């Protein structure tokens, strides 16, 4: 804070006048210390441009590095930072300065470090007060280092694992990365690197406190058959293009979404070469899923602001943020599992299409596949937006009316009650005790998804292909026309042959 700048200059630097000249002295001192450190380490300070891939440059330096740990590369770049501007404001005859926050373009130093526990990481430090610092590390690299120390064989998959000789131990190690280990890593290198604040100043309380600025939590599922895996990933993306809708976002992130929620609600499909990727955004954070290295399904939650989920950024909240990221990944995978595992036996389909009696003698009218109202109800159920709060008349009726392309008044509450009753008597939903809401049964989930997929992907395109004399026929229509022509040609040949014999 501005007042803290005045106190720091007067108390720690022992200047009676809080002059901004001290800020320049501290910057020059720090820069000189970095240059001397680089000379001692035999390193040249690399000036990064905007186009440079800093990590690629560091990896190239690491390939030539032979020590167990140490600074691999020091780079510098001009970047924006938050700082303070001093303005003279004398107090009578006494010279005085006041400070206001400003945005400045200053030099940042990148210290790329090879650490025995964390592998290749970097610490970025600003050269101007309050000396903003950022730390970046890869948890997968930390896990790989721990496996190597324990002599457990594994095959890396970029920043992940393709296989491991002891998967249970690997998972246990991943859970052991905690705030204490991260803080110990930071403290260890603050003591070794040139630092803008002296040891005495840090002991007085002027030290950096780590917070979680960005966190990525991933789950990598490696396919035994990569070709089948790619087909599955493409199917998952095609089936879940509506994940960005507010109701689906609310389900995945377990957050109430209203018109006032600051976010862009859409599903973004990105194609990197031949590799498709899907992204679902909530406020500042993003959940993405893609095919990794052509052989694994990667589900990755990127939390860019802890307050998106009513959490704090402090490092001590790291475990809670990791647990939240893992839960979001699991919810997405659970929904996708429901959408893929929807096979329903033919006998069950026949029973649904017939009028039946329940065990207590109540008659359940038929749910006929292809009926417009039945298909609208099934499509509404397959959105899964009701899983958290349960099914109830009004919200479900609104969705069904939209799918029927009708005003809400033309699909009445009584009609919705009738549809809910036959769903219940067919064991597709069950009433939640002491409430007017219902939950989908396992059979109901499968039937809703199966009916919707079958109708949208096969039934509708098939009926459209049967329309004669289309101006722009689909491939299916062309194929059916070819089959019809071949059959007719064969019948004509048989007829002509029979006529000749006669």
The end-to-end span amounts to: 108 Å
Give, in spatial order, the strands making up the sheet with the most strands.
1-2-3-4-5
- Helix amount, in percent? 40-55%
Give me the secondary-structure category: alpha+beta
Radius of gyration, CA atoms, in whole angstroms = 32 Å
Q: What assembly state would you assign to the polypeptide chains in this entry?
A: single chain
Largest sheet: 5 strands, mixed
Number of helices: 16
Gross geometry: elongated
In the predicted model, the low-confidence regions spanning at least 5 consecutive residues are none
Helix/strand layout:
Layout: H1 2-12, H2 21-41, E1 45-47, H3 54-63, E2 70-88, E3 97-115, E4 119-126, E5 133-136, H4 139-149, E6 154-156, E7 161-164, H5 167-175, H6 179-190, H7 199-203, E8 215-222, H8 226-239, H9 246-253, E9 267-272, E10 275-282, E11 285-292, E12 296-303, H10 318-340, H11 346-352, E13 356-357, E14 363-364, H12 372-381, H13 393-403, H14 413-425, E15 429-431, E16 438-440, H15 442-465, H16 475-501
Parallel strand pairs: 1-2
Antiparallel strand pairs: 2-3, 3-4, 4-5, 6-7, 8-12, 9-10, 10-11, 11-12, 13-14, 15-16
Helix pairs in contact: 12-13, 12-15, 13-14, 15-16
């Amino acid at each position: 804070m501005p007042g803290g700048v005045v106190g720091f200059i007067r108390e720690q630097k022992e200047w009676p006048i809080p002059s901004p000249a001290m800020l320049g002295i501290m910057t020059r001192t720090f820069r000189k210390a970095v240059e001397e450190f680089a000379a001692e380490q035999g390193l040249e300070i690399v000036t990064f441009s905007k186009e440079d891939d800093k990590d690629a440059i560091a990896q190239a330096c690491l390939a030539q590095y032979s020590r167990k740990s140490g600074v691999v590369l020091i780079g510098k770049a001009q970047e924006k930072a938050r700082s303070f501007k001093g303005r003279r404001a004398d107090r009578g005859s006494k010279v005085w300065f006041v400070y206001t926050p400003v945005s400045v373009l200053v030099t940042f130093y990148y210290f790329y470090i090879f650490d025995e526990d964390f592998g290749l990481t970097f610490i970025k430090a600003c050269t101007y007060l309050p000396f903003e610092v950022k730390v970046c590390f890869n948890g997968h690299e930390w896990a790989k280092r721990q496996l190597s120390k324990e002599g457990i064989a594994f095959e890396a998959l970029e920043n992940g694992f393709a296989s491991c000789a002891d998967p249970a131990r690997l998972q246990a190690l991943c859970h052991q990365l905690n705030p204490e280990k991260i803080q110990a890593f930071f403290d260890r290198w603050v003591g070794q690197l040139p630092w803008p604040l002296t040891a005495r100043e840090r002991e007085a309380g002027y030290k950096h406190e780590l917070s979680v600025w960005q966190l990525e939590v991933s789950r990598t599922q490696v396919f035994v058959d990569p070709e089948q895996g790619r087909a599955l990933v493409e199917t998952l993306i095609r089936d879940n293009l509506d994940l960005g809708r507010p109701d689906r976002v609310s389900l995945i992130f377990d957050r109430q979404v209203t018109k006032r929620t600051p976010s862009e609600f859409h599903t973004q499909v990105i194609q990197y070469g031949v590799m498709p990727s899907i992204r679902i955004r909530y406020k500042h954070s993003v959940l993405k899923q893609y095919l990794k290295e052509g052989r694994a399904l990667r589900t990755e939650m990127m939390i860019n602001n802890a307050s998106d989920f009513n959490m704090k950024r402090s490092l001590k909240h790291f475990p809670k943020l990791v647990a939240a990221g893992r839960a979001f990944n699991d919810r997405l995978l659970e929904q996708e599992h429901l959408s893929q595992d929807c096979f329903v036996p033919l006998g069950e389909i026949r029973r649904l299409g017939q009028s039946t009696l329940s065990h207590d003698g109540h008659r359940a009218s038929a749910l006929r596949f292809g009926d417009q109202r039945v298909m609208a109800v099934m499509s509404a159920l397959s959105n899964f937006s009701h899983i958290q709060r349960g099914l109830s008349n009004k919200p479900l009726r609104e969705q069904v009316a939209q799918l029927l392309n009708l005003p809400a008044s033309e699909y009445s509450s009584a009609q919705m009650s009738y549809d809910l009753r036959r769903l219940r008597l067919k064991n597709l939903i069950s009433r939640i005790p002491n409430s007017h809401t219902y939950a989908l049964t396992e059979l109901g989930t499968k039937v809703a998804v199966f009916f919707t997929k079958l109708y949208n992907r096969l039934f509708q395109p098939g009926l459209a292909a049967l329309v004669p004399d289309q101006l722009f026929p689909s491939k299916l229509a062309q194929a059916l026309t070819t089959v019809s022509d071949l059959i007719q040609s064969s019948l004509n040949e048989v007829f002509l042959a029979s006529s000749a014999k006669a």
